[in-house]
Amino acid sequence: MIPIVRRHVKITTTAVLGFPFRCWSCHLATTAHVKAEGVGTSTTAYISPNQDAATKEAQAAMHANARKAFDFCLCPRCGAPSQVTLQAIEAWDRAYPGGRRVRKTAILLVGTGITVALALACVVTMMLTPTEGMSAMDMLLGPAVCGVGIIVLLGGLATLIPYMASISPPRPILATRNPTTVWFDPPTP
Ligand SMILES: [Zn+2]
Q1: Which residues have a beta carbon within 5 Å of ligand 1, which is an ion?
Q2: Residue 81 C-alpha to ligand 1 middle, in angstroms?
Q3: From the CA of 85, how far away is ligand 1's center (Å)?
Q4: Is a pLDDT exceeding 60 seen at residue 150?
Q5: What is d(CA 34, CA 70) in angstroms, rounded to the nearest whole number?
Q6: Distance 134 CA to ligand 1 centre (A)
């Protein structure tokens, strides 16, 4: 048997990229420099790892990271947040109207409603169950214990699952300063 030899290569690329910057608020025009890093990996069996693919991946990741840092940077002169930042906040507010609290309340109400409905269904079932040959205790205790268990379980699940699913990504925050990896040329005349 030939053992499978897996080779792994990881490439990290760092560079400073330039972006033309123009402030929508004070109309400052300059060049932004962004220092960014990107990581690329490649894993292969038998043949030597694909260095080219890993390098390409690292460079693409580096460009994407630099672009993202640039898109969210503040104007170095007037401190205005970028249009991208404002749009991201606007999009978040549209996707999660009222923020997280409203959704939490809505889900808790629905969860409670389902629990109450299950409890009613259980009571009705108990009332309709034939009672011949059973003592009063049998009639109450058995179904009650099993009913409560099922209700709590189903009601809890009905609340928990949508609650977990509703956890929203954090609202984009307005930075108060640019990261040290972003700097600007003096204004172009
Ligand atoms: Zn500005």
Answers
A1: 23, 25-26, 28, 75, 77-78, 80
A2: 8
A3: 14
A4: yes
A5: 7
A6: 82
pTM of the complete model beyond 0.85: no
* Host H or E run for residue 36: strand 29-45
- The answer on pLDDT for 102 being more than 60 is no
Alpha-carbon gap, residue 15 to 17, rounded angstroms: 6
Torsion-angle region of 85 (φ positive above 0: left; ψ -120 to 50: alpha; else: beta): alpha
Cα of 32 to ligand 1 centre, how many Å? 13
CA of 66 to the centre of ligand 1 (A): 20
Strand order in the sheet with 6-22: 6-22, 29-45, 182-184
> What is the DSSP-derived secondary structure letter of residue 1?
-
Contacts of 57 (CB under 8 A, 6+ apart): 11, 38, 39, 40, 41, 42
Is 36 exposed, middle or buried, given 0-12, 13-18 or 19+ CB atoms closer than 10 A? Answer: buried
DSSP structure class, residue 183? E
Domain ranges of the chain: 6-95+172-184, 99-165
CB atoms within 10 A of CB 65: 18
